[in-house]
Amino acid sequence: MFDGYTTSELMSIFAMQGFAGLSLFSVFVLMALGLAIIFGQMGVINMAHGEFMILGAYTTYLTSSAFQSYLPGLFGGYFFVAMLFAFLVCAALGAFVEWAMVRHLYRRPLDTLLATWGLSLILQQAYRTIFGAREVGVTLPDWMMGSIQVTDMVDLPINGLFVMIIALSIAIAVYFLMYRSGWGKKVRAVVQNRPMAEAVGINSAGVDRATFALGCGIAGIAGAAFTMIGSTGPSSGQAYIVDTFLVVVFGGAQSLIGTIVSAFGISQAQSTLEFFLSGSMAKVLTLLVVVGILMLRPEGLMALKIRR
Amino acid sequence: MKDSPVVKWFASREGLYYLALALLLVVVLPVMLDAFRLNMVGKYLTYAFVAIGLVMCWGKAGILSLGQGVFFGLGGYCMAMYLKLEASTPEATAIQSTPGIPDFMDWNQITALPWFWEPFNSFAFTLIAVIGVPVLLALIIGVAMFTRRVGGVYFAIITQAIAAILTILIIGQQGYTGGINGITDLRTLMGWDIRTDEAKTALYFVTVALLFVCLFAARLIQKRKLGRILVAMNTQENRVRFSGYDVAAFKIFVFCLAAAFAGIGGALFTLSVGFMSPSFIGIVASIEMVIFCALGGRLSILGAVYGALLVNAAKSGFSESFPELWPFAMGALFIGVVLAFPNGLAGLYQTYVMPLEERLFRRKPKTDGSQKAKATAPAQTPGERGKEYDPLIDQYSPEKS
Amino acid sequence: MGTTDSTANGRSFGKGTGLRKKLMTLAASMMLATSAQAATPPTSEVNTTGLAVTDDTVKVGILHSITGTMAISEIGSVQAEKLAIEQINASGGVLGRQIEFVQEDGASDWPTFAEKSRKLLRQDNVAAIFGAWTSASRKAILPVIEQFNGMLYYPTFYEGLEQSPNVIYTGQEATQQILASIDWAVEEKGAKTFYLLGSDYIWPRTSNKIARKHIDKLGLKVVGEEYYPLGHTQFNSVINKIKLRKPDVIFASVVGGSNVAFYKQMKAAGIDFTKESPLLLTISVTEDEIRGIGGENVEGIYASMKYFQSLDNPNNQEFVAAFKEAWGDDMVIGDVTQAAYLGPWLWKMAVEKAGSFDVDKVREASPGIEFTKAPEGYVRIHENHHLWSKTRIGNAQRNGQYKVVYETEDLMEPDPFPEGYQ
Amino acid sequence: MKAAKSKSKDFLLAVEGLTVSFDGFKAVDDLSFYLDPNEIRVIIGPNGAGKTTVLDLICGKTRATSGSIRFQGRELTKMKEHQIVHSGVGRKFQTPSVFEDLTVFENLEVSYPQGHSVMGALAFKRDLAVVEEIESVARTIFLEDMLEQPASLLSHGQKQWLEIGMLLIQKPKLIMLDEPVAGMSVVERKKTAELLKVITREHTVLVIEHDMQFVGDIADRVTVMHQGKVLSEGSIEHVKSDPKVIEVYLGH
After folding, report:
1. Domain CATH number, residue A227
2. ABC transporter domain spans which residues (chain D) (predicted)?
3. What residues of A are in contact with residue C228 (Cβ under 8 Å)?
4. Cβ contact (<8 Å) for C143 and B97?
5. Does position B312 have pLDDT exceeding 50, yes or no?
6. Is the pLDDT of residue D241 over 90?
7. Per DSSP, what are the bridge partners of residue D20?
8. Which is more confident, C323 or B397?
9. Of C316-320, C366-370, D201-205, which gets the smallest average pLDDT?
10. Which carries the bigger pLDDT value, residue B352 or residue C26?
11. Distance CA C120, CA C105 (A)
């Protein structure tokens, strides 16, 4: 299939394809980080994760409308404000959901799956009632929609770069929060041994709520970022849920590093296959490979070997 | 006659539950409803097959599959392939560029029937495939997963991924599968027009009959040691393993059983609705099937039947009067059942209705429940022990699920 | 002719200054007027098959998804059909009877469509159904509607390969939409190479099959053909392939949420559609879709449809005004919405031509029906139950509207089973 | 280490060079020991010495990194758990793990060594022989009056006995018990010791225990483990007087 192209053309395409893989990678990382915290660290199967992302996207939409109406001069920078709002709104809803629903189900992980699925139905219909069944168009500041021309053929999309930067910064922030801060220690203590953590004076209910809220908040930021590359509609969130869970499970549920490694592996596989095959077959093959590897190695890529 | 075990069983409390269901499905509903509504009930009942399988697989053995739609769909597709071939006679498809093959193949420039369609010309093969294909896939998945001890949440997510893969595959290979439209416009079964009211009513009764076959099969398993081991496995997998059981084999068995039930349900669905499409294979359909089971009571096979009936009836009813509210109601149902009634309808029945029954039964001391005490004749003992084991009276411990 | 009269009344409604209340009073006075003037034919004459027709009302069904993933697309059709029914009622109804509609939700689920269509035909005994959107939902309804001899008015542009006596297809079938647009791209824009891209289901695949045959016939070249699963949101790889193969035209039939991702990512990858290199020609992006994608992301693309909201003719101006008045100023109207609006009118005219609500008579009366007041201009029902209509090319503007740059001179003949394209 | 003689058919169980490591940490390190038929062997050792891991390795719950476990001449390290059980090894866990949803009778019935395949379990009939066997075991474990009780209603000690009973009914040759008297009252302890005495008439028993009093009551020989290795082995008096043992264990 590469007949008749010059070497420089091919080099450019490979460079662009590498970039495509990287930007898919950052999309996966963004999707999966919030879930890795909620599912990996807390064991809650949050099927409404996609809906939290879309809530972030709608928040961005509202923020952009507000800026257009009231602060048109600052429109270029609204996105940062929107991400903050998205985080706060989603975290607040997350905290509420944890309080009302999830905390009763910590010992029944499969039941969290059903309850959060119910939540996702309700959220979807709520979006439909509030924002209408149609997708909303989120207007982006012009500087975000362009591309940087590196060579004649190589254009790097700015929004792709931007998503990458967000993904990277959030991944680093989460890493420091979970592994380098006192709060992270508490979270891990609660995850590993709840009664013991309580015995040493950790408010485990508070930690749970904050952790769940954090995971939802990150989903919100992901949703905000996805307005740049995807659609914002009541049921857009469902498109992400299978991929997201596979990324987290494939990485080894309890390992954040594993999540990143698996996001990298899956995204590279998918984007390479997409280049050579049709989109549908690429997707099927990628999923099959992931499921196949999971069958051989159920604990995921980076599971801790624990002495039980 | 009076002493025949069958009569005795029907007079027992458990027997009465089955009688009540039979009465409802065979007499009350057909009398009350017109052919159209009865056909809808028949469609709901095809979901009950999946729900019974889920009770065995999830409620009893603790294996939550989010891919039951896959097996339902495969059973349905097998039946649909047979019916489609019957409908695609060279005369009926004369306007096609290749007459005699299903219309969607013609649209996709396929000029000969693909090899894997050929056997579906045979009705006998189709009947075997309806159960065989889902069971075979379940066997492959089961062997791969359970021998490697994949369980719980991981199993749920992997089955979900399998549902996603199959959906994309079926939609993508539309020349062979009918794509997103599915296999439509099915008319006759061995020359018998399945679209008429009479046929639909007849199919309804076939569905009810097969449903009871599956119910009794599930009940038999529950009553046997096999059923006890399934429950035991759910709570103390290691103890079962170190009591000398090959846990994986039992899990594979119950997963295949659930797949077989789902396949039967799917085939009946195709017959009663008249087409099959990939939307039954997907994740949404699969999760909805879990809620039928959860609402009815995840430990009760009878509850599962009522669950499937009620959720679907509510869905139709609600969406006729308040279409916008339906998703809210459905969502609330999920959350409510999980939070407030983890045992579903069967659990509620057990808590509120059974005490009343208890009083009724106590006035008549000559029912079988009174033989609880160790019988003096040792020959009696083996049979009588465990007779109190009722599907509805199972203890449920949510934290172990 | 009754037909012209009633549409004229419809126009007066469209221009009407305001509120629904006014509409209602208008409708009421209209009713009085008709019943006083023209004698309404007795029910026993116009309804011999047990449809839900009384001396002053007739029941029809509206069957679209208002929940689930397809609600996004189908709501516009519901709105258009309701508007048409209101206008028809305001103008005196059909054979002197007011239309009552029973609305059912297909819930984006094909069996539900089948179930609800059975309900409409068996329980509600509706005289006609306006509904379905996706091919899959139509395929699900089709056996039911043929079995119980109902009448379906189906609004969406679709893949063809179908011709049911019980369906009137008010949208375009694939050849109408595709052939003219490729000819246009070749003649006006000098296109030589094409890249075909679509969502993975029957309509894009059939459309691309027709496009490919036509391109072959013209002696030109298809340099890529590609399908993505519905709901797919990552298009970077295909964008790279497009950059590598440098087609003159990207012929796109991506649908739903994927659209948004596709156009945003194209734009971000530095492809400026206004430069027309490559030129993007779509058959799936109506004004409705642009609202979700964002006008700035599709500025410069070309769409081939039979209707654009910006069409400059008096019929359309009235229609757009009435639609906005009924459903809000921020509404946009796409091709399918307009086609859905035709349904009730075409049915009314067929009923009045037949002088009966009986489905068989309505079917017989349908071919040859002309609707001169159609927003798209003029349409006529073909023997094959599809519509004769013009095909137009629109150029997308930043404000989300299309500017019509080309229109076929003659009406395109509908050809659901195109010879040589199968 | 008097058991330095190499493999001989006389041993019921011969563990040689057994090693398992978790991510580099060797929980059991080149461990060897041998059990004679009908012996009661107690393994003691400080926390983390690898005692429970040894039982896990023998019954197949954990897979050895290297080394061999021969039981009546058959290599266990390559067998599946249920095959190990069928070859005659029974194992009781530290925390009582009985089926709380089932009655005592059913608990014992599930363990009855028949109908272990799927189809077998479907066809399994509760005949007179089964009932008699269950009743006899129930007498041994002091639960003959509680057969119809759900296991969830039993006391902690009774659950421990029930689990031992579930092992007995399998008729294993080797019974492995992990801290069988932990959490028991004084009376229950005494009864358990009695029970073990009865059991050893027909079985070889391998016990992990902390309670030195109890160890003294029952043990034929004692193996002391420390950091995954055998520190000392012999009679209770022998190990009690071994200075290495005193230093790491008894001295605390």
Report:
1. 1.10.3470
2. 13-252
3. 278-280
4. no
5. yes
6. no
7. D28
8. C323
9. D201-205
10. B352
11. 11
Beta strands in D36-144 (DSSP E): 40-44, 66-71, 74-75, 89-92
Contact between A250 and A294 under an 8 Å Cβ cutoff? The reply is yes
Residue A89 falls inside a structural domain: yes
In terms of phi and psi (left: phi > 0; alpha: psi -120 to 50; beta: otherwise), the region of A265 is alpha
Q: How far apart are alpha carbons B72 and B133 in whole angstroms?
A: 11
What is the SS3 assignment for D16? strand
Q: Which chain D residues are within 8 Å of B245, Cβ to Cβ? A: 82, 116, 121
Residues of chain A contacting B143 with CB distance shorter than 8 Å: none
Domains C2-171+312-388 and C174-305+393-407 agree in fold: yes
**Closest-CA distance of chain D to residue B54, Å:** 19
Number of CB pairs < 8 Å for A and B? Answer: 126
CA angle, residues D118, D122, D126, in degrees to nearest 5? 125
Strands in D107-236 per DSSP E: 174-178, 204-208, 221-226, 229-234
d(CA D17, CA D228): 11
Closest to C140 (Cβ–Cβ): which among B187, B275, B324? B275
Q: Give me the domain span that covers residue A167.
A: 18-296
Across B61-84, average pLDDT: 94
Indicate the number of domains in chain A.
Answer: 1
What does the pLDDT read at residue B397? Answer: 36
Phi, psi dihedrals of residue C100, rounded to the nearest 5°: -110, 140
Q: Which one, of C160, C60, C168, lies nearest residue C117 by Cα? A: C60
Report the amino acid identity of residue A85.
F
Measured at the CA of D200, the angle between CA D198 and CA D203, to 5 degrees, comes to 125
Chain B / chain C CB contacts < 8 angstroms: 107
Lowest mean pLDDT among A96-100, A145-149, B296-300, B341-345: A145-149
Q: What is the pLDDT of residues A236-268, one digit of tens each?
A: 888 788 888 888 888 876 778 888 999 999 988
> Structurally, what CATH architecture does the domain formed by C174-305+393-407 represent?
3-Layer(aba) Sandwich (3.40)
At residue D172, φ and ψ (nearest 5 deg) are -80, 165
Quote the strand ranges of A70-210, DSSP E.
147-149, 155-157
Find how far residue D26's CA is from the centre of its chain: 22
pLDDT digits (tens, 9 = 90+) for B42-53: 999 999 999 999
State the average pLDDT over residues A184-200.
82
Give the residue extent of every domain in chain C.
2-171+312-388, 174-305+393-407
pLDDT at D24: 76
Does some domain include residue A3?
no
| Distance between CA atoms of residues C248 and C280, nearest Å | 9
Of B175-179, C111-115, D22-26, D195-199, which gets the smallest average pLDDT? D22-26
Nearest to A230 by CA among A85, A61, A65, A116: A61
D39-52+86-250 has CATH 1.10.150.20 classification = no
Query: What is the topology classification, in CATH, of domain C2-171+312-388?
Result: Rossmann fold (3.40.50)
Q: Is residue B136 classed exposed, middle or buried when 0-12, 13-18 and 19+ CB atoms within 10 A define those classes?
A: middle
Scanning every residue of chain B, which has its alpha carbon at the shortest distance from the alpha carbon of C65?
B323
Distance CA C141, CA C116 (A): 9
| Least confident piece of the model among B353-357, C154-158, D228-232 | B353-357
- Chain C, nearest residue to B175 by Cα: C202
For residue D78, the SS3 value is coil
What SS3 state is found at D91? Answer: strand
> In the numeric block, which tokens belong to residue C171?
């949208």
User: Confidence band (pLDDT; 50, 70, 90) for B63?
Assistant: very high
Sign of CA dihedral C391, C396, C400, C406: negative
- The model's pTM is 0.86
- Under DSSP, is residue D14 helix (H, G, I), strand (E, B) or coil? strand
* C281's tokens: 């020609």
Q: State the DSSP code for D150.
A: B
